Queue: 2 jobs
Job 1
Amino acid sequence: MFIYKFIAVTLLLCAYTGIHLYAAFGRVIGSRIAFAILFTLFAESYVIVQFFRRSLEIDLPAFFYWFSSAVIGFMSILVMVIVIFDIALIIMLICKRASIIANSRLKIGVLAILATFVIFIYGHINSVTPRVTSYSIEINKQIPDNIRIVAVSDLHIASYTSLNALHKMVERINALSPDIVVMVGDIIDGELQPFIDRDIKGIFSKIESRYGVYSVLGNHEYHGGQVDSVKTAFDDAKIPLLRDEAIYIEPLNLTLVGRDDYRALRYRGSRAPLSKLIGGATDSAIVVLDHQPQNVILEEASASGADLQLSGHTHNGQLFPFNFVVDRIYKNAWGLMTEGAYNLIVSCGFGTWGPSMRTGSYSEIVVVDING
Ligand SMILES: [Fe+2]
């Protein structure tokens, strides 16, 4: 199970970083056992908070969720910083200059912590400073000049999500004067309650779009286990959730197809074939919303005659060096890929999973201008 793997990996990284930190700050800290206990509690705070929530069903204040998520980000940077210092140490050992490091452990420790904080703050600022990525595509269909779609994905709305950031997102979307606005999955982080309690519906009601706002599920909506309630809440919030459903927007001669998330295969055993959803609408512009840009999905979408697929999910790695990892997993982990008449645009997402931090990508709003 994911949680056990997560605990095993984080304990290993906790031991690796803890040993180094104690080597640097041991004289200042004193008790090795007390440090080991406190540092393990710090490093495993995400697991502890989730244990309170899921196993004990005790809902802690939002600060604990924010803090425990921030620790994941902080630790991921600290590990990399220490690895870099270890590489430097090996080089010094080879050059027979290791005594310099042995005599400067405290200074090196302070430098490592400072470097971690600087990267952490940069990552946080980067994650809350959205950029607009613009694309222009040509399709072989009779459509009005310049249909503009604005897409956001992976908002991961949780109890600690900044409402100010969501208000600003709506302002940015409206300034782009969209024909259609789409939200391409992972809109909530799992649980629906923060979406209701924090009146996200009120914020989304301010979105101005000539032909409506639409949404699809992501894997995180499935993680929450309340998919039917999510549909009711999103429909009620005027961001109708398309679950294996196509709608025809006549003035634009555009068919918008919202697919159930790839994760539905695990929960429901199947999802509707794209060709069935598109049906006989092949003379219209076909825009598919599908949260995960799995390689097998691209083949299906390309073969079914879709003109454009909008996806998210990858976050383009979110934290360095995971951007390189997702780049190897997905044929197109971020940006535009065109193959024949089929265009795929993958957004690296507006929000963040876990820490409010991005060091491998940035927060993004996508705007696509389509011409026939
Ligand atoms: Fe996702």
Job 2
Amino acid sequence: MARVILRDDDLSFRSSVEDLEPFFKAATCYDEVVLSFVPFPEHDSELGPNKSTYNTLLDNTELCEAVKKLISLNNVRIGMHGVRHSGYGEFSQSVPVPEISRGKKYLEEVFGVPVDTFTPPNNILSKENYFRLHQAGFKRIISAFSNWPHERPLTKDYILHFLKSAALALIKKKQNRVLGGVVFNGIYEIPSFVAYRESDLSLLIDSIIQSGGCSDCDVVIATHYWELWQTCPEALLKIPSRLREECL
Ligand SMILES: [Zn+2]
């Protein structure tokens, strides 16, 4: 296993400083922590509870200061999670490049660091938007990958990935994802394993190992700060050490 990366989604101006507390510990357990923010206010979405009285990230100075402290830990990166996270499949629709670029630049200005990683809301991403992310300058997409060839560039690596994913789905082992990222046009796409519910936790380690988690591939664990980090943070913090023990 190369590295264990944590991806946490849905952070936005609605989040509070307390929501970020678990990530100070997470940064000591995971090789990398990607805090993925929604740059602009949403209209209807599936985001977590609104603990903020602010309307923009820039207004929420306490939150921004706490994020900057996390960034200073060196292995914490900022990702972008949609533009407004409006609706279930925001990135299944056409999202104009200037809108994507505006969100990216906004996060970069707010936090003072490059934002090169994109995590699609609900892990839904059309091929058109894949190319728009490239035009906007993103270098890494952390997704659940797609099982549909029309949603990604038709390159040898992607086709191989689709075939392997389809075979796993046919034998009802979809939870054993294909590990290993795919690089195309300077974008590195890497799949993630979700830890949203307690039931996910019980299967997680086995699924990763059966997926080939002892190989040299990065392993990404996807969470929401408003779910398991509130109820069983210790279990989430132990995932990297459990994986390292199993893979020795
Ligand atoms: Zn989300």
